[in-house]
């Protein structure tokens, strides 16, 4: 099937066909590659382009795969045979910053980093902070309900999302939500589209909440003998009523690899934790964090120097790229109740041994959100099969400990088989009925998310 | 239509029929009374009762109206002709408090006050704090996504709701969400049911987030010459990066009436604001709040004495009951962007004059959520008609200022006509299609919410 040429000419944005479409659109950062070649790529320049592309795709029997920064980690935006790719990264205007109301209105292609920088000029910030903040789009962040480093205090992307503009399967433009701090009129469509992974409609704009830049920020780093004591220290911090803005954990080799990539001569340790406190209580909270860490290790470093803090955070952010040097990586994303973090890490270590896989774990200890990274060396032909078996065991561990298979990356294509195991047939059937109600002909992202 | 006697016998809970059903089930705290008499009242004792009642009602052609504390403010739980009332207030067990994970699992009939008290024994609290906390149920709070006094810092009921158990139209039990701090597997059904006002299913249990009891709480009260300066002072506090846990405003006569009801000889003023700061930064934030208020009035009182704070909050909480002494009240619930609070209050004053209605306004200044209370004296036969016209004008004001017709009370039956004006036909159609997908035969709360 293909789009008639007249329909293509109608777009103000650029349109590419078949073999002219860059290969990158068949994949995302997960490494998953969709089967077959997509038919059409529409580089939309405005909402009208999006509406016309949706109607045209429906008429031509093509499916619609929405694309932002292409930084997804579950294959959700990978486009294959029979698809029209709707690249909305060109919708990249900040439409409004209402500083008094702490609200911004942005198009879907704006990156969180760009919005955050713009908000800073008003003494505000956009708190959602996915690791991909510089390369992902806010539309993609919303479509996956992305997390990041600040969730333990400030919540996830959905917590900052007040309203959306969405192009529906019939090409109509839907406005959801509001720009006020509260509001309960009607069903919460904003939350329904947030995290829906492109299966219900095309997010073209969002009204989001901004927050004041904190008056003070303090960074505390600590080096522990092992992950158990690091996890116990994190739990003790939270039990001390402290609400850090960040509480990140790296295991031994994640730390070493990150230091190596950055070329820093850091301390070695069985586990590394970096925390930040912010706001009016930052110093009081930092003192308690440092004192609490001090009950589990003698190596605690505290400072409010932004450069020193940036260096410590750089180590955390370098963990994934450092591991990617060693081959393809399977980036997992489980969440367990916070009290089970140490158990989860121990189980992951056992899984790694059982499947002769290299698995390094880091993540958001404050949320119980762990990223076990399974490294698949290129020179080991059997490694991928073992890695997949290890990943399955990690998902099973998450469910067994009362957790979930994905905390912030989404289901995409890679975790579909596990969704039913987590949620059961009634939840799956309910979701399918909603999907069918909004997209009766299965136009949007077929084969993904559910 | 009526339920066959055999079906009724199957319930372990108590069942009443026709004329035996107390009149109170036809109304709620809004004063709205449903037309006709409900057919059956099921006082459910457990989830099985709920499932059987739903299946039996569907079989008998009755609609299902779910009832908790009956404290709704929009008529959403008022049951009329052709209905089976499913009273779930008997499902009132706290099933679990997992202090380490800051999570509780409760049945729908538990009140927020009871849960909060139980959480306190673990050094935790349940932050959603609707004014009805002692008489409403958490199931009703979730069904309306109730707000309250602490939303400006801690969010609304939905922000504390991690997962739900819901009985669907076919009697199946749906589990939504999770018990972890984060999770993005599948569509966000938890948020969809939160605020759905009984039209999608019966909420029977919830997994909710708890938070540490703050280490410190300070109360600041200020008396202003007029509402304009009070609203400006509130805006200035928020612009100073302070995040109070509470920021409540009362107009002149709300304050006087509340003081009168309580028998306290308080100060008189054109407007009254009570704020609280809490946490590790409470003192630093309170200093800024007091200093900022001081730029708008000389009458600022600060204290950390719990008794003095309780007295100030009692004034805020007494505002509504004080006005209810003067007749039936229409309790409105608009939200405007925070920068428009003073404009909204001025417009409401003009509306009161135009319709010769008594309207007192108080509300959550930190959220822009105002409760204009229209008093309908019993001895004024024409007052109700004028009050309804005034309410319509207030809704129009809210929309004109970029706000919403309901911040925390819901649409129920009383605001249905205004929902379409706020959201437009596409949003309404989308919501109706979701309702139809989950409840194809219109079993749940027909004529409500949409």
From TrEMBL, chains A, B:
Keyword Oxidoreductase in record: yes
Gene3D superfamilies for the chain: 3.30.465.10, 3.30.70.2740, Vanillyl-alcohol Oxidase, Chain A, domain 4
EC number: 1.-.-.-
GO molecular function: FAD binding; oxidoreductase activity
Cofactors: FAD
UniProt KW keywords: FAD, Flavoprotein, Oxidoreductase
Xref: Pfam families: FAD-oxidase_C, FAD_binding_4
Domain FAD-binding PCMH-type: 34-213
Source organism superkingdom: Bacteria
Keyword Flavoprotein: yes
Membrane spanning residue stretches: none
Enzyme class (EC, first level): oxidoreductase
Family, similarity comment: Belongs to the FAD-binding oxidoreductase/transferase type 4 family.
This protein's name: Putative FAD-linked oxidoreductase
Originating organism: Nocardia macrotermitis
């Amino acid at each position: 099937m293909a789009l008639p040429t007249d329909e293509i000419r109608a777009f103000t944005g650029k349109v590419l066909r078949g073999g002219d479409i860059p290969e990158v659109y068949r994949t995302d950062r997960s490494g998953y590659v969709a089967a077959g070649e997509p038919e059409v790529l529409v580089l939309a320049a405005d909402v009208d382009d999006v509406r016309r592309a949706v109607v045209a795709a429906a008429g031509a029997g093509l499916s619609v795969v929405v694309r932002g920064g292409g930084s997804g980690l579950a294959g959700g935006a990978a486009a294959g045979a029979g698809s029209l790719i709707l690249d909305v990264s060109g919708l990249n205007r900040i439409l409004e910053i209402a500083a008094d109301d702490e609200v911004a209105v942005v198009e879907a292609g704006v990156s969180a980093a760009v919005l955050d920088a713009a908000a800073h000029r008003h003494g505000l910030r956009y708190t959602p902070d996915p690791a991909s903040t510089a390369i992902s789009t806010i539309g993609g962040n919303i479509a996956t309900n992305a997390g990041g480093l600040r969730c333990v205090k400030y919540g996830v992307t959905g917590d900052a999302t007040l309203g959306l503009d969405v192009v529906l399967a019939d090409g109509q433009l839907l406005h959801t939500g509001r720009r006020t701090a509260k509001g309960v009129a009607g069903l919460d469509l904003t939350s329904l589209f947030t995290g829906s992974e492109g299966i219900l409609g095309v997010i073209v704009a969002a009204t989001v909440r901004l927050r004041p830049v904190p008056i003070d920020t303090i960074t505390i780093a600590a080096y522990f003998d092992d992950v158990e004591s690091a996890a116990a220290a994190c739990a003790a911090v939270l039990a001390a009523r402290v609400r850090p803005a960040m509480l990140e954990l790296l295991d031994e080799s994640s730390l070493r690899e990150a230091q190596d990539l950055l070329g820093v001569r850091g301390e070695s340790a069985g586990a590394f934790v970096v925390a930040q406190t912010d706001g009016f209580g930052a110093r009081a909270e930092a003192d308690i964090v440092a004192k609490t860490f001090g009950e589990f290790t003698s190596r605690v470093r505290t400072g409010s120097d932004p450069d020193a803090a940036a260096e410590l955070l750089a180590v955390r952010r370098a963990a994934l790229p450092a591991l990617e040097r060693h081959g393809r990586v399977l980036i997992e994303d489980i969440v367990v109740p916070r009290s089970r973090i140490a158990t989860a890490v121990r189980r992951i270590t056992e899984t790694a041994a059982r499947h002769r896989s290299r698995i390094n774990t880091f993540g958001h200890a404050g949320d119980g959100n762990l990223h076990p990274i399974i490294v698949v060396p290129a020179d080991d032909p059997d490694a991928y099969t073992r890695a997949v078996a290890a990943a399955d065991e990690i998902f099973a561990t998450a469910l067994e400990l009362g957790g979930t298979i994905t905390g912030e990356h989404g289901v995409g294509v890679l975790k579909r088989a596990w969704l039913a195991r987590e949620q059961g047939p009634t939840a799956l059937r309910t979701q399918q009925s909603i999907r069918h109600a909004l997209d009766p002909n299965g136009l949007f992202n077929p084969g993904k998310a559910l």
